[in-house]
Write a structure and sequence with these properties.
This protein is of the alpha+beta class. Helix content is 38%, strand content 11%. It has eight helices and seven strands; from the N terminus they run H-E-H-E-H-E-E-E-E-E-H-H-H-H-H. It has helices spanning 6-18, 27-33, 52-60, 163-177, 183-198, 212-221, 226-247, 254-260, and strands spanning 24-26, 42-47, 65-67, 88-92, 98-103, 130-132, 159-161. The longest helix is centred in the C-terminal third of the chain and has 22 residues, at 226-247.
Length: 263
Amino acid sequence: MPDLSESFVASIALALNSAQIPCVLWGHYLLNVHGVPSAIASIDFVIPDSYLSTSIQVLTHLDNLASCPDLEICPASSRLRQTPPPIFHVHITDLEVTVSLYLQSETLWFLTPLDRSLAAPKEVELPSSFVFVSDQTILPPWRPGRGSGFFKPGQYPVIIPKSYVLLEAFMLLYARDWDERIGDFSMAMIAYIEQYVDEDGFLETEQLSEPFLTFYKELRKGGKPLRQWTEELEEAVRILEDSRSEAETTPLSLLQACKQTKP
């Protein structure tokens, strides 16, 4: 019978990597690794957009995973869910838990595209934004009242974003979604990272890039109305995305595109 063990999570990463699909752990399981105590209803991975169809084929052919019986009523795909929905999910047999896929363009779009070389994690030097899930020099151990912490040595190497990258991701997601139903989720995740990661000394705050370092310090300090802080963050992200777009000769930033396509 499948479970939520480290070995099961590693087996999903191995299956994707064996099909030459780079993947990065995401979601509540990732939060637990970083020390945030979080209930796990899904094992999530971020993949490059172009590998979606292949990734779906891999997951649908794995033992102990089953296709969703009804997308209309399933909580994982519900239009009423309070968190960003995955692009695809399957169900773990005999458990009320899913294995889900998220696109990099919807989660970690600000990073360099996930390279195919990451599908061979035993043979590649990781980019500075990532770390292996068993790295005891960066990740916390298990502690009472905290998340699970790093994986035990000996597992297949699973790649995860470092804690400061995760914080930047949630700040970008909040800037994009704050006026949507799912916007509250990202702010809650920012608060959890502050409480359980930063206060325990595992955030690497000095690695935060601007404008995120300044805005995070402002949020921690308090004193500024949240609405004002939010609008200023949104504007700062817009300027950042515009500057990146100009540098890459891209006519429209992702943030702008998301705002323009809202119903």
